[in-house]
Amino acid sequence: VLALDGKIREVGEKILASNGKEVDFASALQSCEEAGGTLATPTNEEENKAILGIVKQYNRYAYLGIKEGETSGQFNYINGAPLNYTKWHQYEPNGKGTEKCVEMYTDGSWNDKKCNLYRLTICEF
């Protein structure tokens, strides 16, 4: 019922939704949290594919709920937990501390990126 042209997707226990807006990482995270969720965070291949579906629909890269921790090159979920699933693009992550956020490409692979760029907002609930 809530499928709104694929802008809302269900995957496992999660519901994914996008408002179609492109904003920086902090704004994307804030809008997801204000809506009662957080940034979309793939923890397995199925979730990655569901997020990719929204990325492809808008044909825009999207920020994921993953950030670089204190250790350069080590990425964690927004809540600080270590990643249990990754889908890095070849030769990524390569920012070595300068690229603290993670975006999803339109092929579903990940890239570490600066946090001040405008990327599609996709939230999970």
Automatic annotation (TrEMBL):
Instruction: Domain (C-type lectin): give its ranges.
Output: 25-124
Q: Which GO terms describe its cellular component?
A: extracellular space
| A Pfam family matched in the record | Lectin_C
PROSITE patterns annotated for this entry?
Answer: C_TYPE_LECTIN_1 (PS00615), C_TYPE_LECTIN_2 (PS50041)
**Which InterPro entries does the annotation name?**
C-type_lectin-like, C-type_lectin-like/link_sf, C-type_lectin_CS, CLec_Tetranectin-domain, CTDL_fold
What Gene Ontology molecular-function terms does this entry list?
A: carbohydrate binding; growth factor activity
Q: Which SMART domains match?
A: CLECT
Keyword Disulfide bond assigned: yes
Cellular location of this protein?
Secreted
Q: What Gene3D superfamilies would the database entry show?
A: Mannose-Binding Protein A, subunit A (3.10.100.10)
Annotated GO biological processes are:
ossification
The main location class comes to: secreted
List keywords of the entry alphabetically.
Disulfide bond, Lectin, Secreted, Signal
The name under which this protein is listed is: SFTPA protein
Q: Which organism is it from?
A: Corythaeola cristata (Great blue turaco)
Query: Taxonomically, what lineage is the organism?
Result: Eukaryota, Metazoa, Chordata, Craniata, Vertebrata
